[in-house]
Amino acid sequence: MPESRYEVLALFTGAMIGASLAIMSTGALMPFFKSAFHLDQAQLGWLLSIQFVGSVAMTSVAGLLTDRFGDKAIVRWSGVLMGVSLVAASLVASFSWLLVCLLVYGIGYAAVTPAGSHAIIFFFKKADRGIAMGIRQCGVPIAGVLGSLLLPAIALRYDYRAALAAAGILTFVASTIASQFYREPSELEGERVSLRTMLDEMVQIARESRLILLTLTSMVLIAGQLVLIGFLTLTLVHRAGYSLSLALALFTLSQVTAIFGRLSWGWLSDHLFAGSRALPLAVVCILAAAIALAFGSITAGTPPLWVAFLAAALGFTAEGWLGVSVIGFAEIGGEEHSGSALGVGLTWTLLAAFVTPALFGAVAQVYGFDVAWRCLALLQILGVVPALLASRAVAPRAST
Q: What is the pLDDT of residue 398?
């Protein structure tokens, strides 16, 4: 047994930071890809979308494999797959092969959240799981901050190939450290049953009303997160007339507050909401809707301090909620089937993440950013309904 549950948490958080460096830094590396391959805007969009395609296709499978083989093995081999694919991406000379390598990276990235969730459920009591998962999920925005500083600097000094290779090596090292030092309890080494039995159990979990309702709210909220990642900077440049450097600084601010958001919403879920995972998500939907509505009203005359506050608030809410949703999925599945429950819930959530940028961009292209943000606000409000419906079921019946 590990000496401390916090040792386990540190190992899996480190693995998540390493694995997320590439995907969270894709936007920062776009200018280098554009220059190297002479890409248009649509082709640049595929560099991010293709990574989500891989994750959407394999998240359910990754959850199933985690239940079957345990966290330790999946963290190790997914890290190998991601590391090798990123290094390979640094070696290819064509845009098509670059997309293939990023697709493979996305397939490996599908295992990042399911692998490790068994350990959180096992080592932390229900009263502490929200904050524990919030800490682990902080790995994503931390990777966004670190990657946006480190990888573009490497690309400037050398080129994008060196940046991709560095991301691949760091991903491999972080995953290897986590799998090497994690002393997996025998109870979590995987369920040695037939594949058909596990598939049947996954289908049964997928029909669980609690999981369906929580997934619907998560699909709504992930739309807000992807709009933040993809369009906050563009909105500030085109609507407020900000310079690119100032807009990027405000985006970095949103990522910093997202770290605090993931910690805060996890703690609030444990203590203020007495272990409910659905009620805090309903609150996030309301707050995100209000902030999105305010973003739709930004113009060149909007006070800069107000814009900075909105950017910070958007990061805190629209990107801060994910840990609560993840622990909710895992608790529905329990210690034995948390991977399968996460696989099902995250597959649909990531599908919404894949679709959102294209839809938001199309609305902004035809009607303007103001209308697009107001449509997002309406969508966020709709997420309150399934969250409230789930609130009575998720908390009382979650694993203790």
A: 45
